[in-house]
Design goal:
By secondary structure, the chain is mostly helical. The chain has one domain: Arc Repressor Mutant, subunit A (Orthogonal Bundle), CATH 1.10.10.10. Helix content is 47%, strand content 5%. A two-stranded antiparallel sheet has the order 1-2. Helix 1 packs across helix 3. It is globular and about 25 Å long. The two termini are 20 Å apart.
């Protein structure tokens, strides 16, 4: 997986959950919004401090994690 520079982990921010650029916006929040049918423009209006690439990296990270979790145990 390529390095995702916008996904950060800090135990002092949202309990260490993966967040967007150390802000209090979790990857789970973004993925949940997209899964609920919200488009990028709508999300960016609701979170004006986010950027298009933040959403893309959140989705890429979630996809990578789901593949990692689904991998058979050795």
């Amino acid at each position: 997986m390529k390095q995702l520079s916008r996904i950060t982990f800090d135990p002092h921010v949202m309990g260490g959950k993966p967040c967007i650029r150390s802000m209090r916006v979790t990857v789970g929040t973004i993925v949940g919004l997209v899964a609920s049918g919200h488009g990028f423009r709508e999300i960016l209006r609701a979170y004006p401090y986010l950027e298009d690439e933040d959403i893309r990296e959140a989705l890429a990270y979630a996809a990578w994690r789901s593949e990692e979790i689904d991998a058979p145990l050795s």
